[in-house]
Amino acid sequence: MNFGVIPETFLERVALWRRLVPIPILDLLFGPLKARTIMAGVRLGVFEALRDQSRTAAELADALRLDRVAIELLLRALTHVQYLEERKARYGLSPLARRTMVAGAPTELAGYARWNETQWRLLDQLETLARTGRGVDFHETLRDQQAWGHYQKAMLEVARFDAATLVRLTPIPAGATRLIDLAGGHGLLGAAICRRRPPMRSTVIDLPQALEHSRALAREAGHSDLVDYREGDLLNDPPREGARDGKDDCKRCQQFFCDADLGGGRRHARQCSAWIIVRLLLPLDKNRENDRKVKPRSWVKNWTEPILTVARTLVRACVVSSGRAD
User: Which helix or strand (DSSP H or E) is residue 291 part of?
Assistant: First the structure.
């Protein structure tokens, strides 16, 4: 799936075919403009104000205490990108906005729109990343609890799209009763697995700033009965230095959690009885740099590799059960 210029009339198609359209201008201007209009619609309360009834621009401006001329420009822009509909000078929610941009919608993403304000600022560091190879620790950029709240809400909204697939594809050993969700935040993904495998329970381990919002989100989403929350920091509370072989990621996770006090005291990795669902992309070791080299790819890999890459990024599963690590 790509994102780009979409002709809507025959003449526009002809112009594109004749290469008369300055596509880079449209990419540079309208891509960011579309994102910002959606973000503004959420932040200013436009979508919520239109939840129950359509309104004129003047009525909406008065209700939200906005400028009448400026808000009409915003409403027209949101109509053009199909988040609003206009009939006889009255604006209402489109089907797309009704299912995504209001609180409690079936596939609500208003929280993600608010979180995108932070992501927008992170993009300012793209050139620095290209020059130095040093990325931005976005956790360090979240200076207030409101930003943390937006982040956790956004991750919960995104997780709803992945939960069913994760439950279907994650193998669970017979008799497993505990699941440890690394950096799980809201805990929805672990809870989805536990709900299908009673009496399994999930323990989310995440930063304290995240957990301040996670419990409330879990109650609202209806999975708080399946999840416990504990503070922890995998990066700043590293496991013991140890093996550097091909199973290093798995062993490091085993060491970290088996040395932690999770109700059973300190135990050797082979004695742990838990599933560890790791949604944290662990860094490559120096002796695994060859993994990054580009290799010849068949047309099958061209289709399947992006899908597998997304799956591996979303979930790195380390299984520690019945005295074995798979």
Answer: none
Return d(Cα 97, Cα 83) in angstroms, integer.
5
Angle subtended by helix axes 110-122 and 145-169, to nearest 10: 110
pLDDT top residue among 176 and 308: 176
Q: Look at 270 and 177; give whichever has higher pLDDT.
A: 177
| pLDDT tens digit sequence for 186-229 | 999 999 999 998 899 999 999 999 999 999 999 999 999 999 99
- More confident site: 258 or 122: 122
- Please report how many Cα atoms fall inside a 13 Å half-sphere around the Cα of residue 139, on the Cβ side: 10
Q: What are the percentages of helix, strand and coil residues in the chain, rounded to 5? A: 55, 10, 35
Cα angle 274, 275, 279 (rounded to 5 degrees) comes to 140
pLDDT mean across residues, the chain: 79
H-state helical runs in the chain? 10-17, 23-43, 46-49, 57-64, 68-80, 95-100, 110-122, 126-132, 138-141, 145-169, 188-196, 208-221, 248-259, 299-314
Question: Cα separation of 53 and 57, whole Å?
Answer: 13
Are residues 125 and 136 in contact, defined by beta-carbon separation less than 8 angstroms?
yes
The radius of gyration of the chain's CA atoms, rounded to the nearest angstrom, is: 24
Ordered structural domains, the chain, with CATH? 10-110 (1.10.10.10), 161-325 (3.40.50)
> Is the pTM higher than 0.85?
no
89: confidence class by pLDDT, cuts 50, 70, 90: very high
Angle (deg, nearest 10), helices 68-80 and 23-43: 120
Cα separation, 208 vs 28, whole angstroms: 38
